[in-house]
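Retro notes
What went well: the complex prediction finally ran end to end.
Inputs used:
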Amino acid sequence: MSIQTHAPGIATLATRLRSGETTAAGILESCFEQIALRGSELNAFITVLTDSARAQSHAADREIAAGRNRGPLHGIPISLKDLIDVEEVPTTAASAVRGHRPALHDARVVARLREAGAVIVGKCNMHEFAFGTTNEDSAFGPARNPIDPTRSPGGSSGGSAIAVATGMSIASIGSDTGGSIRIPAAACGVVGLKPTYGDISCEGVVPLSRSLDHVGPLTRTVGDAWILYHVLAGKALPADSQDLSRAPINLSSVRVGVPRAYFFDKLDDEVRACIDDALARLATAGVRVRDVNIAHAADTAPIYLHVCFPEVAAYHAQTIERCPADYTPPVRHRIEAARYVLAEDYVRAERGRVCLRHEVDSALDAEDALMLPTLPVPAPPLGAATVPVGDSHEPVRNIMLRLTQLFNLTGHPAISIPVGRTSAGLPIGLQIVGRRGETPALLRLAAACEQALQA
Amino acid sequence: MTVDAWLQAALADAAQRGLPELKPILEALAAATRALRAADWNDSASAPPPSVKPE
């Protein structure tokens, strides 16, 4: 097992790069060593950009030596989920449908990473077209959990989570339509941020469901996510808090709501115990924790399906008519089924979505954040159709999406941070949800919680 | 169109297109559609306003 969550964060690496203690080329080579060590076993990457990454790292070293400072990402190796366009590199979306045509332009987020001096390591494996939570259905084969390779790394940004957890890249950029950043982050023991809807551009990113799609970072720490968020959103890092760990907020002024009804109804026993323990430790650290209610939370899945499916169907209709056999069968069948949703039910779902958004806003009126598990279960075994939860067995896809998809419907920012392990060593994630439009405030709160829970 | 009628039509169409594998997905979608239509924020041309206002 090679999990590197205690490796230095981006702010520390940036300081070391400027002091000459390390080099961008050296950091990149350590990533390549990890890729050589476990890349094939875990199937984390679809494309490793060896030559161009080396050229970028040498250029970064020359610029840094010449005194040109592009910021904390300068010389830092970053990987990308393979639905994000990189000029002259194929964007496969983990599907045979896309062929090997290279992208004509960088996605907006890639352009921002380049401006910040980041080194693009490669393109990560994912669930085909981001339409799944396990990373099993990929034209390039399944990705595997780095803690237990017989298990799923979560998805759809599974390769990204593996890359960060193992040090194959310092951070990764993924996308999240129902939990696809937060779920693999929780399953692999790293941090995953879905910002407020619209904070980060999806231009040049293959869509799944445009009104639910979010782009965001997977990182080792919340401080790293803070840096990536500002770069990806095109926002200047606040001068007084380039390193978030040095500017913590006071937890005794923080109010947290815990939506127990629905969100705690179907949980693995060890996940429940771990999350309750984390909440108790935060209360001991001064956080005021109380239960809140989201009245129509149980309607989330029906609403989500009837919003997501028509948007998926519209994007894939022509292609699935032309080359259905080029999709993996499970993804093809879900896309085909999505085409049957009636317009009147889509309209009902959009109305329900407004109701849910209002209820989450109301729950946050008197709270700074909501806290709940990210995944109700530890990473499931690859190939499992159902997983045990208490006395019942639940379909894998439904249970993995259960606690995250609400915040794609409502657009609230949400982050998963690792808070513990099961007795088998599988990571458990705590999900923290902030107010819409206040992603930076959520990150500050999450950083303080991360520190308190590590103490 | 009722959910039952929709499901029968969808299953028949899928079978005619050589896609019997869609049956469990369509049945799950039908269950979700029933739940969606039963939600109390829905309004109706002949009924009083819904007990829950979306906003």
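What we learned: Residues 23-38 of chain B form the longest helix (16 residues).
What to try next: split runs per interface for comparison.
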